[in-house]
Design a protein that fits this description.
Structural class: mainly alpha
Number of helices: 5
Radius of gyration: 22 Å
Helix content: 55-70%
Shape: elongated
Distance between the termini: 79 Å
Strand order of the largest sheet: 2-1-3
Number of strands: 3
Largest sheet: 3 strands, antiparallel
Length: 179
């Protein structure tokens, strides 16, 4: 009986640490995405000027072109918080907390912990998939603007505000001309 209680406590500590790591990683990623830069007329412009309207830093230029503006509007609508994701994440977190805090049988604790973790993972992957597919709308908005307007907008979605590339492996070929 004592061994069972120790095993249960260790599992609860592991789940608590996992939840803490997930929350910290989400905060780091949120800070990182707010520092994207575009170059317009040899000047750096913040793409995401605030946390609620991503891409708003380009609106001044992109709104000159109706097609590009429609893509930007679609992009901004896609970045809004979806209640389905919030509800699924809340249910998953609640299940995990109920498994950690509640006084249930060992089988019920495992079902709650693994069910909650599964819901949170599914929610994470669905949200990331929607976010990456929505990012194409911003790229299309910039491409449509660049087809018909000047000054051109140069934007690399993989580049962060400090001038480094993101953690994903990517190939960038560039040439800097100087005279």
């Amino acid at each position: 009986m004592v061994l069972f209680l120790i095993d249960s406590v260790v599992m609860k500590i592991r789940v608590t640490l996992l939840l803490t790591l997930i929350l910290v990683a989400a905060q780091i990623q949120a800070v990182d995405t707010c520092s994207r830069l575009a170059i317009i007329n040899y000047q750096e412009v913040l793409v995401d000027t605030n946390s609620t309207e991503k891409g708003e830093g380009l609106r001044f230029h992109i709104e000159k072109d109706p097609v590009a503006k429609s893509y930007l509007d679609t992009y901004q609508q896609g970045t809004q918080i979806r209640w389905q994701n919030a509800a699924l994440g809340t249910v998953g977190t609640g299940m995990m907390l109920a498994g950690v805090i509640g006084e249930h049988s060992a089988d019920r604790e495992k079902v709650l912990l693994f069910g909650g973790a599964t819901l949170m993972l599914i929610n994470f992957f669905v949200a990331r998939t929607l976010e990456s597919s929505n990012e194409q709308n911003l790229i299309k908005a910039i491409e449509e603007y660049n087809k018909r307007n000047l000054p051109k907008i140069y934007f690399n979605p993989e580049q962060k505000g400090d001038g480094t590339l993101g953690s994903e492996v990517s190939l960038v070929i560039g040439k800097d001309w100087s005279f």
